[in-house]
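Anyone up for a design puzzle?
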């Protein structure tokens, strides 16, 4: 059997260039991509989904992990032939989907069994994709290993009281625990982006520890953090109005001081608020 050609040769042979309109910044350092892939853990029992494989720098070490199956979702069709050629060097069942990951129905692509999602995400769709995965019902993944712009990574893992604490940290904490596991300087990418990046590992909480009404949680956190300088009595007015109640009543049910500001309330305070909002809304 012939060996897999080096990634840079494949990029040259298939004439692949980074296209800014697709947010393309390639990872060509195989030590770094192997490290990111290893964060998926043991995936011998799992389907791995990779979003935006591009020329395959992360795809290769993901295939090396020998998952039960790998599904790659790529929007730019120029990469499909190179990915198909790459898959030919591995025994792992490998499905390449040409399409937009924001519109993909991952649960039906996976079928039964656990899944892990790994991606060097395009920056413009990173946050909407994370929210889509957090809101999945039922949740079909057990771990997410995702590269984000550093500021977004910090917002995902932010503890209560931190400057970057807000909606993203609270929605994440509702169903998962998240940590920054790796930092990647701009020079790790080709071409280098204008920002620093970081890999976030998001682990699903056991079912009994999850708060699952993320729709209500989005409404109260949007309202509370939309005017983060104001007290909750003021900032929650919009959300309360949508449930035909007032902020004071919601805060009382949730056991939260109406004079407090959003950034001082830990995630479980917002879970109680979301519950109170849902009860008022009926
Ligand atoms: N994974 C490759 C790597 O690390 O070298 C490429 C990473 S590049 C930052 C992002 C990739 O996501 C590109 O290949 C781009 O075409 C693809 N992409 C952008 N938006 C997408 C979307 N909505 N759905 C699927 N793929 C997308």
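Challenge accepted. My sequence:
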């Amino acid at each position: 059997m012939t060996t897999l050609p080096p990634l840079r040769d494949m990029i040259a042979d298939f004439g692949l260039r980074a296209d800014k309109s697709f947010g393309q910044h390639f990872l060509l350092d195989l030590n770094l991509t192997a490290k990111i892939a290893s964060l998926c853990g043991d995936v011998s029992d799992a389907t791995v989904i990779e979003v935006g494989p591009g020329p395959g720098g992360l795809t290769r070490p993901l295939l090396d992990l020998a998952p039960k199956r790998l599904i790659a979702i790529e929007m730019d069709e120029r990469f499909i032939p190179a990915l198909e050629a790459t898959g030919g060097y591995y025994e792992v069942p490998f499905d390449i989907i040409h399409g937009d990951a924001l519109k993909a129905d991952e649960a039906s692509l996976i079928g039964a069994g656990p899944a892990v999602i790994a991606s060097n995400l395009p920056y413009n769709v990173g946050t909407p994709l994370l929210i889509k995965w957090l809101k999945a019902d039922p949740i079909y993944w057990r771990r997410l290993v995702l590269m984000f712009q550093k500021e977004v990574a910090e917002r995902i893992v932010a503890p209560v009281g931190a400057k970057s604490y807000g909606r993203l940290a609270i929605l994440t904490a509702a169903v998962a625990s998240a940590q920054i596991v790796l930092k990647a300087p701009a020079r790790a990418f080709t071409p280098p982006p204008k920002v620093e990046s970081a890999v976030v590992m998001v682990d699903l909480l056991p079912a009994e520890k999850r708060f699952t009404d993320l729709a209500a949680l989005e409404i109260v956190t949007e309202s509370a953090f939309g005017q983060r300088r104001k007290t909750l009595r003021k900032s929650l007015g919009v959300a309360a109005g949508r449930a035909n109640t007032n902020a004071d009543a919601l805060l009382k049910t949730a056991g939260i001081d109406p004079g407090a500001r959003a950034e001082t309330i830990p995630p479980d305070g917002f879970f109680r608020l979301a519950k109170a909002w849902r009860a008022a809304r009926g």
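A detail worth pointing out: The mean pLDDT is 96.
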